[in-house]
Amino acid sequence: MKTIFGTCFSIALFLQLHVSAQSEDHQVFRGSSSNYQSELDIFIENPRTQLWDKSLIAFDTAATNHFDNQYDANKFMGASNRETLYTLNDGQKMSINVLKNIISNPFVDMALYPGSNDSFIISFVGDTTFDNTSYIVLEDLRTKVLHDVRKGSYEFWADSAENPSRFIVHFTPPAVISATDGTCQNMGSIKVTQAGPAYWNYVLKDSASNKIIETGILNTNSQLVAGVLPGHYILTLTDTNNYTATKHIIIGGYPAIVSGFTVSSSNVSVQTPVTFSSNSQDAEHISWNFGDGTSTSGVTNPSHSYTSAGVYSVILSVSNSEGCSSSQSQTVVVNTATGISDIYTGNINMWSYSGNVFIDFAHAENTNATIKIFDMLGRELINEKYSGSSLYQKNIKSIDEAYVIVNVTSEGQITNKKLFISNSK
After folding, report:
1. 169, 131, 150: which is closest to 24 by C-alpha?
2. 134, 55: one domain
3. Is the model's pTM score more than 0.70?
4. Do 253 and 182 contact (CB within 8 A), yes or no?
5. Could you give the C-alpha distances from 268 to 219, 300, 316, in angstroms and in order?
6. Are residues 316 and 373 in the same domain?
7. Which domain-ending residue is among 307, 335, 363?
8. What CATH number is attached to the domain comprising 363?
9. pLDDT tens digits, residue range 246-273?
10. From CA 153, how far away is CA 49, in angstroms rounded?
């Protein structure tokens, strides 16, 4: 049947509706055989005669889009002088018309045999069994009226001789929400899609803090995807007529634990206290390894002094009761009290020329060494194993002009030296 919406649900016409901001709850009593996922009871009444009739449209994934003996029922016509209301399925008159889903059945033809020239009232029960993001619209082909079912009853005049194929009931698919719980490694996620002609402006908020997480447009071409921590979230959808639908979304699981810390100074003298301050998130258990063979636990902001010059890797490890863990490391350079000290083993010689570092292993028993080069803030520039010729050469391209600290571990001994690097021409 051709409708004023055309062959598909025209969003431009649809959004001209003044959609109600709320829908009223109804309680429906019927036999135990009725237990559909969504159902709309449609009643028609003649106020003059006080006679009435009823038809039902329902959706259930166990049904088909054709006549199902276990769900559907044909409509038998009433007396010629009274109204008869029915829907159509494959050309059959239906009293109960149960279809598989809205996606494959966005509209249902509905017919009326008035039986007299009178005014009539169509009312609806069951709109609350549909998702509040689904629009339900009654289209009157004779008057060209589009009536929002959630607003209540519809009054009209009918002639006994008119074409009974007068109405179409339109349904739009609901917004589909999928949620993924958080894990130790990943945040939780919320994804919302909207098929059909519906067009929403959305606001996603954290219920606890009322903080806005995400805003945007939701329609068939635009979806909502947000990474979130475990918690309670409120999604508010508002259409162009200020109709508002609200969804509550619960994200379970565990928050991803994040480790991090700051250092009061990454370049200090021997016996100078260094303060480490954890800024880790969602950590319940905390431990520190200061890189010199000492450690501590249960302290958020420990202070530590080094007794020997050298380059130390400090590691912070955190965990929580859910089994999530994380770690982070930083480097601390420790010098003698007068500044950075050159520490020699007597077997290794180091110097710099231009932008290059040279290390001479000619007097060492072997050249199996670990070579680390740091800037004066303690940031590691080079960390590599070396077992080549007796002369090691490395160009430090990341520095224009600055001092670096060269740390060589070989034969169980450590050699440090402060060298000046210049790549300027």
Report:
1. 150
2. yes
3. no
4. yes
5. 59, 21, 19
6. no
7. 335
8. 2.60.40.3080
9. 999 999 988 778 899 999 988 888 888 9
10. 18
